[in-house]
Write a structure and sequence with these properties.
- The structure is a single chain.
- The protein is α/β, with parallel strands linked by helices and about 220 residues long.
- Helix content is about 25%, strand content about 30%.
- The protein has helices at about 35-50, 70-85, 95-105, 150, 165, 190-195; strands at about 5-10, 15-20, 25-30, 60-65, 90-95, 110-115, 120-130, 135-140, 155-160, 175-180.
- The chain has a five-stranded mixed beta sheet, with helices on both faces. A five-stranded mixed beta sheet has the order 8-7-6-9-10.
- Helix 1 crosses helix 2 (about 70-85).
- It is elongated and about 50 Å long.
- The protein starts with a strand and ends in a 23-residue tail after the last helix.
Length: about 220
């Protein structure tokens, strides 16, 4: 059991969640994606002050390590690593898609398919069982009407996340379900607590975001 600060800046809504012994102590959110960098440090300071705690009292910092927004991932990882370096605390890095799947375990479908918008018809996605076992490894894919045919043949699948609206118009299978379930840093709690208990920490010197595809800059 531990006091863990969970940080999620991987998607359009940034959030932080302070959790103790696997339960929410306090949570903060920012829906303006362009302000994530300026919001995050102030939000962390305020969440500790609000709960009469000092930052040094945390046992670990957890962060969504990707995939997701390139800028958002760098903001979250840099902040988490900075705190860990300064206070000599362990760092937990969680796959963003796994965190999303953790929030959707109660959905009525055989498999869970989180999707993060990756521009054009691309998404970052993976397939999980309700026990969070990987069925399809996290990857960046270009969607088409047959993208999940082999899995939809024998399974109902819940698609969700800010990339799922790309698949909804072309995913015609009666086994495909679409949910507007929202995720935030509170969806990290059980995963970060488990990693802490099992001492699954990442090396601060080598920890970096999981991008899944190269950053593309249009030619001028």
């Amino acid at each position: 059991m531990a006091l863990i600060l969970n940080i999620d800046t991987a998607v359009d809504v940034a959030s932080i969640c302070l959790a103790k012994d696997g339960k929410v102590v306090s949570i903060g959110k920012n829906e303006s994606q362009k302000d994530h960098a300026s919001w995050l440090h102030i939000a962390i300071k305020e969440i500790f002050e609000k709960n009469n705690l000092e930052l040094r009292s945390v046992d670990a910092i957890a962060v969504t390590g990707g995939p997701g927004s390139y800028t958002g991932l760098r903001i979250g990882m840099a902040t988490a690593k900075g705190i860990c370096f300064a206070l000599n605390k362990p760092l937990i890095s969680l796959n963003t898609l796994l965190v999303m799947a953790n929030a959707a375990k109660m959905e009525k479908a055989d498999l869970i398919c989180p999707m993060i918008d990756a521009r054009r018809m691309e998404v970052y996605t993976a397939l999980y069982t309700k026990e969070l076992e990987i069925v399809k490894e996290p990857a960046a894919i270009t969607l088409n009407e047959k993208s999940f045919d082999e899995y939809l043949l024998n399974n109902s699948i819940c698609f969700f996340g800010n990339g799922s609206n790309k698949f909804q118009p072309i995913g015609k299978s009666s086994q495909a379900f679409f949910s507007d379930i929202k995720t935030d840093a509170s969806s990290m709690i059980s995963l970060s607590e488990k990693n802490f208990t099992e001492k699954k920490f990442v090396d601060l010197a080598y920890a970096e975001p999981i991008y899944l595809k190269e950053f593309y800059t249009p030619a001028k």
